[in-house]
Design brief:
LRR_dom_sf, three-stranded parallel sheet, FBD-associated F-box protein, alpha/beta, 24% strand, FBL13/AtMIF1-like, 448 residues, F-box_AtFBL13-like
Length: 448
């Protein structure tokens, strides 16, 4: 007998728990020693890939056989993962009822069916007191109409929902939730019978990490998103909104914020030079104010445009910001300098220039920046990167400004716009390399 087979069952089960369940079961054919080991494994990972073509009933049969043969009384399931693109609702619902128990800690369901049908989860899932992690993806419905089931998940700390809708009552039953990933998919124009629209989503106050992607605002005219989470440390916010949406956003101050990524997108690609079409996201400056304690901040291009066109907007003071990444639709030196004057200890700055020649330019409404060099540029900024540099006059002026005023700069990296010809690129490199530098250790790098 080999050395591995001499190990006790507990260790062998721990090894098998890292394998997909079908592979774990196949070890029963290795020898008599391995014949029944898999039956004690308390982690099941069932995937559709090893089975036949879509719609083959063998997956249902396999799930039922596994649950029937394993030693459930002595070794109850602690982690259950099911991933499949086609399934029969009734057998899977029966299997889930068999899985849910007082020892279940982690549940992961990624199920896809015909778009006209959604699977309602067994209500026992909402009162599984031992559950610490729950992931629900794709064609799983949390639509129970007005009679939403009671939710009591006192141990749940990690929750990931990638679904069409979520009832606000769901979050109220998660008193210790710390990590939430909520992706609201685009709801079909044909709403299921009994559908109840919930316009307000309020995030649990206990959150430390929030990833929120919202595509549902494309369907409804009025929505309200409330992020009143004073303990939040990580935020990834992506909202795709219609220009006609009346989306509202309410946020608290985030004193513990460490990392924040904000990506506000508009579903229709158009530019109003008067800035009128930014009015439906007038809350973006308020959101930036709430993020003033963060150490890392990235703003995608439409988000930057919302700040760019905001009337009488003053940047908040960022006393802890070390890394700033900005996407620009319209590069503007005054906007950037005003931002830098509010970033007192910034060490790294990255700029993506998405400017396209066919788009009309947009005027910056903000004030003229102070004449002195921002304190972060002269005493803290070490690394600067400019991506898609095309050598427009204001771009070249800003590069010169940083090279001369950046007294502690270590690296400046310029990625040239790809459609520039070789002669133009060569002239850009020569021109920027000739600019005097305030830092004696500054290295200037160029890439295509």
């Amino acid at each position: 007998m080999d050395k591995i087979s001499n190990l006790p069952n507990s260790i062998l089960c721990d090894i098998l728990s890292y394998l997909p369940t079908k592979q774990a079961v196949s070890t029963s054919s290795l020898s008599r020693r391995w014949r029944h080991v898999w039956k004690d494994v308390q982690v099941l990972d069932i995937r559709e890939e090893p089975f036949c073509s879509s719609g083959d009933p063998s997956l249902d049969s396999f799930v039922n056989a596994i649950l029937a043969q394993r030693n459930a009384d002595l070794y109850p399931i602690k982690k259950f993962r099911l991933t499949c693109k086609s399934f029969s609702v009734d057998p899977i619902s029966t299997s889930l009822n068999a899985v849910i128990g007082p020892c279940l800690q982690e549940l992961y369901l990624s199920l896809k069916v015909n778009v006209m049908f959604r699977m309602n989860l067994p209500k026992a899932i909402f009162t599984c007191t031992s559950l610490t992690s729950l992931v629900l993806k794709h064609d799983i419905s949390l639509n129970y109409g007005p009679e939403f089931p009671d939710v009591y998940l006192p141990s749940l700390k990690n929750l990931e929902l990638q679904i069409d809708e979520v009832d606000k009552k769901f979050f109220s039953g998660c008193p210790v939730l710390e990590n939430l990933k909520l992706i609201l998919q685009h709801m079909s124009s044909v709403c299921p019978e009994g559908y109840v629209y919930i316009p307000t989503i309020q995030m649990p106050q206990t959150l430390k990490s929030l990833t929120f992607e919202d595509y549902s605002t494309l369907c409804h005219e009025i929505n309200h998103r409330v992020i009143d989470t004073p303990s939040l440390e990580y935020l990834h916010l992506k909202i795709v909104t219609s220009v006609f949406s009346e989306l509202l956003m309410s946020v608290s101050h985030f004193p513990n914020m460490v990392e924040a990524h904000v990506d506000i997108q508009e579903s229709q690609s158009r530019v109003d030079i008067n800035g009128a079409f930014f009015e439906h996201v007038c809350w973006v400056p308020m959101l930036l104010q709430a993020l003033r304690e963060t150490e890392l901040l990235t703003l995608k291009r439409y988000t930057t445009m919302c700040l760019f066109g905001a009337p009488a907007f003053k940047f908040p003071e960022f006393h802890y910001l070390l890394y700033l990444e900005l996407d620009f639709q319209f590069f503007n030196t005054n906007f950037l300098l005003n931002f830098l004057h509010s970033c007192h200890v910034l060490e790294a700055l990255v700029i993506y220039n998405w400017e396209e020649p066919y788009l009309l330019s947009m005027d910056y409404n903000g004030p003229t920046p102070p004449t002195m060099v921002p304190s972060c540029v002269s005493s803290h900024l070490k690394n600067f990167e400019f991506i898609e540099y095309q050598d427009a006059a204001d771009e070249r002026e800003f590069i010169a400004y940083l090279l001369q005023g950046g007294l502690v700069l270590e690296t400046v990296t310029i990625q040239l716009k790809s459609n520039l010809d070789l002669e133009t690129k060569d002239n850009i490199v020569k021109g920027l390399s000739a600019i005097p530098r305030g830092s004696t250790i500054c290295q200037l790098n160029f890439f295509d």
